[in-house]
Design a protein that fits this description.
The protein has 108 residues and is an alpha+beta fold. Helix content is 36%, strand content 25%. The longest helix is centred in the middle third of the chain and has 18 residues, at 41-58.
């Protein structure tokens, strides 16, 4: 797990607002999965549906995902209090936890 959620929690406790939230109450995370040998978009769609069915329990909202089938890469955009909650959804929904999770900002 990356250190960013801890930094966000500490900043919140000190009353410092993370500028990457850009008006959001909940931080955005991008997680990355790597599946050796590739992955099908259909399989990812099924796993994403299981995430949607599980997310409420953890106060998480999986917003979008992207797939590179040949490279076996899956990218998930999620609103969550912290990276651990986001990964807990994957763990409970289908067991495919992310290899990496990044706190990301929305810039326009």
């Amino acid at each position: 797990m990356c250190p960013h959620p801890l930094m966000h929690t500490l900043a919140s406790a000190l009353g410092v607002r993370d500028p990457r939230l850009k008006g959001r109450e909940v931080p955005l995370f991008m997680d990355v999965h790597t599946i050796e040998g590739g992955v099908s978009a259909a399989d990812v769609a099924g796993a994403h549906q299981k995430d949607l069915e599980t997310q409420e329990k953890f106060g998480v909202s999986y917003l979008r995902y992207w797939v590179d089938e040949g490279a076996g890469k899956i990218f998930c955009l999620v609103e969550a209090r912290d990276a651990e909650d986001a990964n807990n959804v994957h763990r409970e929904a289908h067991g495919l936890v992310a290899d990496e999770i990044y706190l990301v900002g929305e810039y326009t």
